[in-house]
């Protein structure tokens, strides 16, 4: 029997004769492993952290099942997307719970936050390495960028061969940024024997894959949660960075900042923009900089002609 609200009652014959009804929640009859599998699918397809947090507030049983490691370990990147303005100790513990459950996206996001935003280089690099060992493409590429730049150390800590090897693994895992980086490394002989023909071939492959992606209906340019956090974080910390003489990567969807003075490369023509990698330089050139770039002398002449106004 059901009430108007759909609440079920099981009525035993003896209780029916006595005029008593016992309320029974049919959901309570479901086994825990079935509920956990449902929550795991929800976690893998969640669009925001609130999708899981709302389940915690439903009932005590949900609160216990949602934090099951099999649910947290498969949470999607969107489920772990935290805004920089909302960063606090509870937010760190939120990500840490996913890390402890073995979620590779959480390892990468928290690693990027600790390495670049919070300045905790050893722990940040260790978290990214943990994700990289699970074949996380973005983590492999980020470690390659760190090796190319010697981030967190001195200029002499750069390891070009290690960066090239990490780029190869990241490209094999599907990273387009790593594929572009490999192409430019081969063209310039950066960390590997120079091969202009092989570099151009890789650039053609990267361009075809990017074109194929953009031809997919409703395909949008994706910015990873870690990069979005860094962009928002350093937007508010820009004055602090300038006081230290540190620069941001000019590619607006990157978010990486220098860990020491003069770590990033400048544009060789205008010298007004900075890049953490050749891939960021190629993307920014194609989207923005090719219409703005001019030699420094010409830029100064134009500024003088325009006057102080």
Describe the overall structure.
With 309 residues, the protein is mainly α. It has 16 helices and 4 strands. The chain has a two-stranded antiparallel ribbon with strand order 1-2. A two-stranded antiparallel sheet has the order 3-4. α9 (137-149) packs antiparallel against α10 (160-172) and α10 crosses α11. It starts with 8 loop residues before the first strand and ends with a helix.
Task: Indicate the topology.
Layout lengths: L8 E2 L2 H6 L3 E2 L8 H13 L5 H7 L3 H7 L2 H4 L16 H12 L3 H14 L3 H12 L4 H13 L10 H13 L3 H13 L7 H19 L10 H12 L1 H7 L20 E2 L7 E2 L2 H10 L8 H11 L3
Antiparallel strand pairs: 1-2, 3-4
Helix pairs in contact: 6-7, 7-8, 7-13, 8-9, 9-10, 10-11, 11-12, 11-15
Number of helical segments with 4 or more residues: 16
Spell the H/E element sequence. EHEHHHHHHHHHHHHHEEHH
Strand content: under 5%
Structural class: mainly alpha
Q: Tell me roughly what share of residues is in helical segments.
A: 55-70%
Give the total of beta strands: 4
Q: Strands across the major sheet, in which order?
A: 1-2
What is the end-to-end distance? 80 Å
- Our Rg estimate from Cα atoms comes to 26 Å
The gross shape turns out to be: globular
């Amino acid at each position: 029997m059901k009430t108007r609200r759909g609440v079920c009652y099981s009525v035993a014959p003896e209780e029916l004769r006595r005029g008593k009804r016992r309320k029974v929640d049919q959901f309570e009859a479901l086994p825990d492993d079935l509920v956990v599998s449902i929550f795991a699918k929800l976690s893998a397809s969640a669009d925001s952290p609130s999708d899981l947090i709302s389940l915690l507030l439903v009932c005590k049983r949900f609160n216990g099942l949602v934090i099951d490691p099999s649910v947290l370990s498969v949470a999607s990147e969107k489920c772990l997307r935290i805004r920089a303005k909302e960063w606090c100790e509870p937010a760190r513990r939120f990500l840490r719970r996913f890390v402890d459950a073995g979620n590779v996206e959480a390892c990468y996001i928290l690693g990027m936050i600790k390495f670049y935003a919070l300045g905790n280089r050893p722990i940040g690099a260790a978290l990214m390495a943990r994700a990289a060992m699970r074949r996380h493409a973005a983590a492999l590429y980020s470690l390659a960028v760190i090796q190319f730049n010697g981030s967190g150390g001195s200029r002499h800590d750069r390891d070009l061969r290690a960066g090239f090897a990490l780029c190869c693994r990241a490209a094999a895992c599907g990273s387009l940024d790593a594929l572009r980086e490999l192409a430019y490394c081969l063209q310039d002989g950066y960390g590997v024997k120079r091969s202009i023909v092989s570099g151009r071939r890789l650039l053609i492959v990267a361009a075809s894959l990017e074109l194929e992606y953009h031809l997919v209906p409703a395909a949008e340019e994706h910015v990873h949660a870690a990069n979005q956090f860094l962009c928002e974080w350093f937007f508010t910390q820009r004055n602090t960075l300038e006081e230290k003489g540190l620069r941001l990567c000019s590619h607006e969807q990157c978010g990486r900042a220098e860990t020491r003075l003069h770590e990033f490369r400048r544009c060789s023509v205008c010298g007004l923009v900075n890049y953490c990698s050749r891939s960021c330089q190629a993307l920014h050139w194609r989207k923005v900089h090719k219409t703005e770039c001019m030699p420094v002398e010409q830029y100064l002449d134009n500024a003088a002609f325009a006057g102080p106004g």
